[in-house]
Amino acid sequence: MKDKTISKEVALDDLEKFVNHYSKKSVERNVLSESYPDVLEAIQDGFLSFDDNQTPKLKLKHPIKGEEGAVVLDSLDFKTRIKPSDKANIGKGISIATDILTYQLRLTSHIIGQPIAILDKLSPYDYDVVSQVCAVFP
Predict the structure, then answer these.
(1) How far lies 98's CA from each of 5, 87, 115, in Å?
(2) Phi-psi region for residue 83, left (φ > 0), alpha (ψ -120 to 50) or beta?
(3) Which tens digit of pLDDT belongs to each residue from 17-36?
């Protein structure tokens, strides 16, 4: 097993600050590793970091390459606020009650500032981290 870049305790500190910065209710520290295991691992592995405003940045573990093998995407910056008008535009034309997956994909795409097609190109590791980070934002 590869040594972690950041200790679990330091990673939990970072995760706690991040989640509680955006959550309406404080999340207990002992719940974080169960609720956000992939985020915690990405922090420990050195792929996920936060700036002073708790805005996450993910360095992709498996960068996306183009047809010729050149890296076309190696990191993702997250939008931390989804305005009500953005939510309305994201949900336009779909029934959220019956097509929640499409809404979730559109919302995730909006948060990472990339087209939906990029989500299909993310590795399972990177996609799981993106999904859990996006779940934090109201």
Answers:
(1) 42, 17, 22
(2) beta
(3) 999 999 988 888 889 999 99
